Amino acid sequence: MSHHTGLVLDFGGVLTTPLLPAVLDFEKREGLVEGACITALYLDEEGTRRTHELECGAITQGQWNEAAAARLGVAPENLMGRIFADLRPEPLIISAAAAARRAGIKVGILSNSVGLAPWNLYDGYDLDDQYDAVVISEHHGTRKPDPEIFKAVLEPLDLPAEQCVFVDDTADYLPPAAELGFAAVHAKAPQQTISQLEDLLGVPLAEEV
Ligand SMILES: [Mg+2]
Fold this sequence. Notes:
This protein is of the alpha/beta class.
């Protein structure tokens, strides 16, 4: 098998710690029933529609905060920032991505946006300097799993999908990527993801201890 020369990484839940524990902590802090947030915002039809609009840049994070706060019965101020307050950078994946670049692999970020203000999920990650391409869905008017947004990251990487590995913690986004030709990796645990990437890219990525 010839090795891949490009790597496309999702952001939330891949370059960061997992989303679900952060959301569960938020629910606890705000006195909500466990699962209230997931149900109201990501499973409910109206909530899902709003989130998709936000990802596509059709509504602002402020508008999303207002609508979501009303559904949850919590204060709207910086709601998205409060929901994800506990998210942290995932150092193993971040250093693996840096190791991949040093080894000559082109690395791009492909992220469904949660809006950029008042709370910027990407703050402090220095994406423009650390990666070869950065595609944030709201700047493209569409969202994963639309094939168009995968093409939007392939173009600046100047690679065909067949040369690239795509990593996402959301399983639903993997089949459309695979259909385009990407090798698709479901991010579950950083160590496991890194060893899968080492096989696909043919370069060592784990931090030396
Ligand atoms: Mg994700």
